Automatic annotation (TrEMBL):
Transmembrane segments: none
GO biological process, one term: amino acid biosynthetic process
PROSITE patterns assigned: D_2_HYDROXYACID_DH_1, D_2_HYDROXYACID_DH_2, D_2_HYDROXYACID_DH_3
The protein's name in its UniProt record: 2-hydroxyacid dehydrogenase family protein
Secreted found in the keyword field: no
Signal peptide boundaries: none
Residue span(s) of domain D-isomer specific 2-hydroxyacid dehydrogenase catalytic: 12-316
Family per similarity comment: Belongs to the D-isomer specific 2-hydroxyacid dehydrogenase family.
Gene3D superfamilies recorded: NAD(P)-binding Rossmann-like Domain
Keywords of the record: Amino-acid biosynthesis, NAD, Oxidoreductase
Pfam families associated with the record: 2-Hacid_dh, 2-Hacid_dh_C
GO molecular function: NAD binding; oxidoreductase activity, acting on the CH-OH group of donors, NAD or NADP as acceptor
Ranges of residues in domain D-isomer specific 2-hydroxyacid dehydrogenase NAD-binding: 106-285
Length: 319
């Protein structure tokens, strides 16, 4: 049984897998698509990273492949429909991703609301020329305000709990409304997307990237939001029309934004770097040493569970 890992990763999470099977890793960098394409015909299992494209071409070049184990909760990098049609299993790692991503969403929310990074940057760059004083650098209070969560899966729910703890009201929009018991437990209220956009002081995107969620926040949605609203995106970049967001932030159509993901790859549009009312982080939602290792363990559990049937596999059942 041969296992190919596309990404450079701490080996700690992989010890059990390496003790049982032949595992190929890149050294000091990720494998390129071309390298993986060359190697894949020999492999039974592919462990891919969330930004590595597992497309039709690659799947068609992998006659032995049985499992694609993604290092991520998101799987928009994989042609899941085609993989399933070809009889492959696709797996992901939801559990270890939930809390760290909810934490980074909360961090961006607080930072954008209270202008933490902006103040830090101004102190460093302007020094004593920075305007300070009790009437300067006013932010949004957070407590007592309304958070609108679009996408009420595991991460949305984890964020709702955190927001509740801070005294926020939480409304949400999702493909399916939660059962009333769960809504009551989470203290959240289901609303339409239109109501959410009109009512929320903060809009957080926690939905997967699918054709339905592409540009779920575009020019029209930004116009519907309050002028005092703050947008948080820790899901996937293309959920937001980034050009429209630049315009909205520039023209004060919304107050601010906090982004951990960008529409066009690893970096934001250069125009965003010019704006003070946006906090930017480079997809660090799960970027802690501990999370890196437990995500690797979750990948290995999926692989070993699939091959040996001795533990549950987090299977992706549909695109
Ligand atoms: C990270 O972006 C993930 O999907 O786990």
């Amino acid at each position: 049984m041969k296992i190919l890992v596309t990404y450079d990763m701490f080996r700690e999470g992989f010890t059990e897998l390496e003790s049982k099977y032949e595992v190929t890793f890149p050294e000091g960098r990720d494998f390129t698509y071309e390298e993986v394409y060359e190697m894949i015909p020999e492999y039974d299992v592919l462990c891919s990273m969330f930004d590595f494209p597992v497309n039709k071409e690659l799947i068609d070049h992998a006659p032995k492949l049985r499992l694609i184990a993604n290092y991520a909760v998101g799987y928009n990098n994989i042609d899941v429909a085609y993989a399933i049609e070809k009889g492959l299993t696709v797996a992901n790692t939801p559990d270890p991703v939930t809390a760290p991503t909810a934490n980074i969403a909360l961090g961006l929310l607080l930072d954008a609301a209270r202008r933490i990074t902006e103040c830090d940057r101004k102190l460093r760059t302007l020094g004593k020329k920075m305007k300070v004083g009790v009437l300067e650098n006013l932010g949004a209070p957070v407590t007592g305000q309304t958070l609108g969560i679009i996408g009420m899966g595991r991460i949305g729910k984890a964020l709702a709990k955190r927001a509740n703890a801070m005294g926020m009201e939480v409304i949400y929009h999702n493909r399916h409304q939660l059962y009333i018991e769960e809504e009551t437990k989470l203290n959240v209220t289901y609303v339409t997307k239109e109501v959410l956009l009109a009512k929320a002081d903060f809009v957080s995107l926690n939905a997967p990237y699918t054709p339905e969620t592409y540009h779920i926040i575009g020019e029209e949605e930004l116009r519907r939001m309050k002028r005092s609203a703050i947008l948080i995106n820790t899901a996937r970049g293309p959920l937001v029309d980034e050009h429209a967001l630049v315009k909205a932030l520039r023209e004060g159509e919304i107050r601010a934004a906090g982004l951990d993901v960008f529409e066009f790859g690893d970096y934001p549009l250069p125009e965003l770097l010019e704006l003070d009312n946006v906090v930017l982080t480079p997809h660090i939602g799960t970027q802690t040493l501990e999370t890196r290792v437990i995500m690797a363990k979750a990948v290995c559990d999926n692989v070993i569970g699939f091959l040996e049937g001795d533990r549950p596999v987090s299977r992706v059942l549909r695109p």
